[in-house]
Amino acid sequence: MTLRDYAIRYGFIVLLVGLIAYFAIAADGFASPQSAVFIFQSVAITGVLALGVTATLVVGGFDLSIGSVATSAMMAASYAMVVLEQNAIVAVIACLVIGVIVGLINGWLIVYMRVPDLLATLGMMFLLLGLQRIPTEGRSIATGMTMPDGSVANGKFSEAFLALGRHRIDFFIPNLIPVSVVVLVVLALLIWFFLEYTRFGRMMYAVGSNERAAELAGAPVKAYKIWAYVISGVFASIGGILLAARLGRGDIASGNNLLLDAVAAALIGYAVLGAAKPNAFGTAVGAVFVGVLLQGLTMMNAPYYTQDFVKGAVLVVALVFTFALSGRGKR
């Protein structure tokens, strides 16, 4: 392997290690267990959403609605338990149903109505942003809140549900690993195995690589594309469940950066180990990178308005590793 090959394959991993080392030296407390917990918590939600984006990238699509699906699921879970006084199982099922329905609608618009994926999912994003605010007239959901009709919401989040976002597991250090990280690891392993080692997953890659050839080979291309958006919707709803469990309320403003962070993680995944394609392992590493970057900038008291700039710069570097250095962008 040439030096260039090593740079393409391992450059981003070296960049991640260097970033961690820099923040450990420059930011007081970055190397502490408390900082690790914050990174893990942010990585879990971003990573789950990014894995959903990865599924759509595999078939040559793109889902801009994941952030809105996640916040809609968060608001639905909050509404079910706080306003309707339902249990955690009902809340979780409602969130997953929302993810499936949104995924099916996105897939139907893209596959059968021939609406470009960016436009279809952008429209869904705005639709959900408005829809999730209608039941409470734009208010966040919390125990004791006054509803638009004057009634008081007396329900509360169940302890079992809150444990999904708040409980931590001992791992060498007491209370180090949040349960949400375990959820992320399980989902990442499932989607990795699904994409890499099942016929369905390999056919999804084939559809994304050359849709016309896959269709001529007899593959049900439309079904694969719709399933990709269903997977994205379900993963986004799981992210919303974890977010609601972490916050313990339905905060309408809490998901503002979910889309950007998840997309950044999924696209950064292209550069990990020189994959140059959407993949679950790279996406997980990308989520860790975004989490480390944001936590480090926060602990260095970097102005909030610089964080998106830095994320964008890192994303550009990652795409350079993927396409320019490897020559993948040449036609």
Helix-strand blueprint:
Layout lengths: L2 H24 L6 H26 L7 H18 L4 H24 L5 H15 L27 H8 L1 E4 L1 E6 H19 L1 H11 L1 H6 L4 H27 L10 H11 L11 H20 L4 H21 L7
Antiparallel strand pairs: 1-2
GO molecular function, one term: transmembrane transporter activity
InterPro entries: ABC_transp_permease (IPR001851)
Membrane topology: Multi-pass membrane protein
Plain-language structure description:
It holds the Pfam family BPD_transp_2. Keywords: Cell membrane, Membrane, Transmembrane, Transmembrane helix. It is found in: Cell membrane. The chain crosses the membrane at residues 6-25, 37-58, 64-82, 89-112, 118-135, 176-195, 226-245, 257-273, 279-297, 309-327. This is Inner-membrane translocator. The protein has a two-stranded antiparallel sheet with strand order 1-2. The protein is built from 13 helices and 2 strands. Helix 2 crosses helix 11 (258-268) and helix 3 crosses helix 11 (258-268). 69% of the residues lie in helices and 3% in strands. A hairpin with a 1-residue loop joins strand 1 and strand 2 (173-178). It starts with a helix and ends in a 7-residue tail after the last helix. It has one domain (3-324): Orthogonal Bundle (ABC transporter involved in vitamin B12 uptake, BtuC). The mean pLDDT is 90. The protein is mostly helical and 331 residues long.
Q: Tell me the total number of β-strands.
A: 2
Order of helices and strands: HHHHHHEEHHHHHHH
Broad structural category: mainly alpha
Report the radius of gyration as a whole number of Å. Answer: 20 Å
Give the total of domains. Answer: 1
Overall pLDDT, averaged? 90
Number of helices: 13
Distance between the termini: 24 Å
| Residue runs with pLDDT of under 50 for 5 or more positions | none
In the CATH hierarchy, the architecture is Orthogonal Bundle
Largest sheet: 2 strands, antiparallel
